[in-house]
Specification:
Helix 4 packs parallel to helix 5, helix 7 crosses helix 9 and helix 9 packs across helix 11. With about 475 residues, the protein is of the alpha+beta class. Strands 6, 7, 8, 9, 10, 11, 12, 13, 14 and 17 form a ten-stranded antiparallel β-sheet that branches. The C terminus is likely disordered. The protein contains eleven helices and 22 strands.
Length: about 475
């Protein structure tokens, strides 16, 4: 007797795998359910599988209906339809007992969509109310489809394959407006560190399109300075900017991604085929420093906090100025910045800068990871003469800073350094690496500060010309 093959879904519920034979089977749904139930905690109560008190499907049936849906969310306020008409969210669960309640998982967060009796749509991300909007951050970055928090002016930039923003097909939003015949993300490559089969660290270039995942990035009012918690967020935001045809957002993200990358490579042309053209090529040339644009300088300079403006200040005055910059990164809650360094923390920062040797301090107390660590890194990236004289400790000027933290604090330490150290000193050419093995790459230079980069890799500085 030949046994009949049965299509089934494998899901993880209450920490154990369950086999579900659905009424209708989909390979894409099967793969998604397997991945999403591993990443999030699904529970079963009375035969109903649900998430966060919302029942999703009934396992008491021999062949339950397990389907994923697509939900459309319109802007909460009018006047932005010329930029973002609506957002479509894929792979959405519908509640088992209510056809007006939906659940989706976007960038490691739960997104709830509820429809009331008046057909009004309510959207929540991790239980916090949001609404679809079009953000005008400042003169440099504007007209960005996003989710705005319902109770504040802060916004959430969502980059996910499950969320598609439907924008106007006219003007710059038309797919062929910039004359691109190839997707830009496939023409940009990033050198990544990986461990090969011999357990040795090696480097390989990957097209950015292969590195894109999903993430959400909060941007806080009133300054709307771009702050990311990881390099992966920058890659995802760059993909979002390309998909939205938003060149200004592309430029801002590329500035920061370049600082956080071992090496970025571009393929502007292959033989006679031009792959990067129009404003995209101009934007890349501008970020790499190959083309001057005073108008762009005026727009993007304010997006970077200047910690080089206090070169000759005494250390106490410089620390005060540095803490003022640190405070500008913070979210405003009830009219006040969320974090403001205390006098005790300022004194401790001066102590570790002035210490006669590498300073070791406890992980406990005084907000070491969230306050002291980013402030110390910001001080190192500045040009303050007093601070660097003390950091030299009687020797040569220091051009590289290595931070070692306990293993359980590594993710938080990386996030804090990325948040505060990528948006400093417009046009200052420095690098921030979150993997010490990046130092093995030929393009990573220690000692003298790095020089300008070509389209492909860093080149030595040219000899100075005549005055």
């Amino acid at each position: 007797n030949k046994s009949a093959e049965v299509d089934y879904y494998k899901i993880r519920v209450d920490g154990a795998h369950r086999i579900v034979v659905p009424q209708t089977f989909s390979r894409a749904t099967s793969d998604y359910l397997d991945a999403i139930t591993r990443a999030h905690t699904f529970t079963e109560r009375g035969g109903l599988v649900g998430y966060d008190e919302l029942p999703l499907f009934d396992l008491r049936q021999a062949q339950p209906s397990v389907d994923l849906h697509r939900v459309r969310v319109d802007p909460a306020k009018g006047g932005v339809e010329s930029v973002v008409r609506y957002a479509e969210i894929d792979n959405v669960f519908r509640a088992h007992d209510d056809d007006n309640k939906f659940l989706a998982f976007v960038a490691d967060g739960a997104l709830r969509v509820d429809v009331d009796q008046n057909d009004r749509v309510r959207v929540r991300v991790n239980q916090v109310g949001v609404e679809l909007a079009c953000a005008y951050f400042n003169d440099a970055v504007s007209f960005v489809p996003c989710f705005k928090y319902a109770d504040s002016d802060d916004v959430l930039l969502v980059s996910s394959p499950h969320v598609a923003f439907k924008v106007d097909n006219g003007g710059q939003h038309h797919a062929d407006y910039y004359g691109m015949k190839h997707e830009l993300a496939s023409c940009m490559l990033s050198v990544e560190v990986f461990v090969d089969l011999n357990d040795e660290h090696a480097f390989k270039s990957f097209p950015l399109e292969e590195l894109v995942t999903e993430s959400k990035t909060a941007v806080y009012a009133p300054d709307y300075v771009l702050q990311v918690a990881s390099r992966q967020q920058l890659i995802n935001l760059l993909s979002l900017a390309i998909n939205l045809r938003n060149v200004s957002l592309f430029i801002l993200v590329l500035f920061q991604l370049r600082r956080a990358s071992v090496a970025l490579e571009f393929k502007p042309q292959e033989g006679k085929v031009v792959k990067i053209s129009g404003p995209w090529r101009e934007a890349i040339s501008y970020v790499l420093g190959h083309a001057a644009n005073r108008r762009y300088d005026q727009l993007f300079r304010p997006q970077f906090h200047d910690v080089d403006a206090h070169q000759n200040a005494a250390l106490p005055d410089f620390v005060d100025a540095l803490c003022d910059v640190f405070t500008k990164f913070q979210r405003v809650v009830d009219g006040r910045r969320q974090i403001s360094p205390t006098p005790k923390q300022k004194a401790f920062l001066q102590k570790i800068i002035s210490a006669p040797e590498c300073f070791h301090f406890s992980e406990v107390g005084s907000g070491k990871t969230k306050v002291i660590l980013p402030l110390f890194c910001m001080a190192f990236l500045s040009n303050n003469a007093d601070a660097h004289a003390r950091l030299a400790r009687g020797g040569r000027d220091k051009h590289a800073l290595v931070v070692l933290v306990p293993e359980h604090l590594v993710p938080d330490a990386k996030a804090q350094v990325y948040r505060y150290c990528l948006a400093l000193n417009f046009r200052s050419d420095y690098r921030v690496y979150d993997d010490i093995f990046a130092l093995l790459h030929d393009d990573v230079l220690l000692g003298a500060r790095p020089t300008a980069s070509s389209y492909y890799r860093r080149e030595p500085a040219a000899a100075p010309g005549p005055p």
